[in-house]
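User: Some background: our group keeps a shared notebook of sequences we're curious about, and every so often someone picks one and asks for a predicted structure to add to the entry. Today it's my turn. The entry only has the sequence so far, pasted here. Could you supply the structure so I can complete it?
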Amino acid sequence: MNRQVYMTALLSLTLSACSSVSNKRAAGSFEYADREEAPKIVVPEGLHKPKQYKDYDIAKDVNHDGPVGKNVDVRAPSLVLPVAASSRIDPKSQEAFIWFDQVIEERNLTDFIVRAVHEQLESDGVGLRVIDEDKYVYESDWYRNEEEKGYWGFEKLVLVDSLRFRYTISPKPHGRSVSLAVEMVEYKHDKNSEQKIDIIDKHRAEMQMLNEVVAQVDYQYRLVQRENQLLRANQKLLSIGENEVGEPSYIIEMESDLVWQNLPLFFEDYGFTIADLNETKKIYYVDFTKPENNFWDTIWGDEVPVIDVADARYQFVLEAREDSTVLTIYNSDGEALPVATLERIFPVMEPGLSFRNIY
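Assistant: Of course. Here's the predicted structure to add to the notebook entry:
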């Protein structure tokens, strides 16, 4: 029984010793902090002063009032993390400051950053105040830092301190670059209203707040990207129409250069082999052979969609039309495929010519 009591007491002492260690403080001896500076050498009159080297002299502009010994904060400096697309930092700046460049053309960049700040504070359960709407200056309500204190099932949350931040968003005149600066504007300690936050802790808090907003910008970018992908996946990019001379054709809602570049991928997947091409006139000459699906393709779901046309040589002729492309398919006799054929093979051609596996 005595042994159990001894081990319990020893464990309690160990835990209390560990909890008292500060990650801000350097370990070791601080005797150097108490040593006085040696007096300068006094050279007697009539003797030559020995040669002195200034390699290790301390400049006079050093902050002699700064912390010494155990009061020195040894934590690594906080850095701005430009994880969002087209975000960049000013290497000469030590402040919580970052630049964003235009990524999504159809979105206003300034409004996008403002929304990211709103979203971040909303996810933190903190309100946002508008200080100057025209100059894009905002301030947060109080962020409250709490710690869990107590032991053996009697833990409780205790308020430690509270912080408020200012967000200044500054777009350049062209609107394609926007800066974001974060500054702590108010601090309150729960136990001591007179206590001020350490300048290093203030800087670290500003950096952390900025990095959270940058991560939120990155998250919002990803949401937009996913939204665009879903929109393209569900969008009908192919329809049936006519070319300039009234022949039945497919209309692809995509620029002709993109269609020209991606058609070889379509040919490879659907049983066509390129025999020749005319890039100037935007014509592909292809040979078609129906793909054969075997038993194992059916089992493993690797069946190739089959285009219901005869095995023969065809011409795929592209014609640019504003933001779309007219595709006319000619058979070996130089005749455009009729509307009935285009409609029959449409269920296979539509996903293939929309290039959904690429975009």
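Suggested note for the entry: The radius of gyration is 35 Å. The first strand starts at residue 87 and ends at 88.
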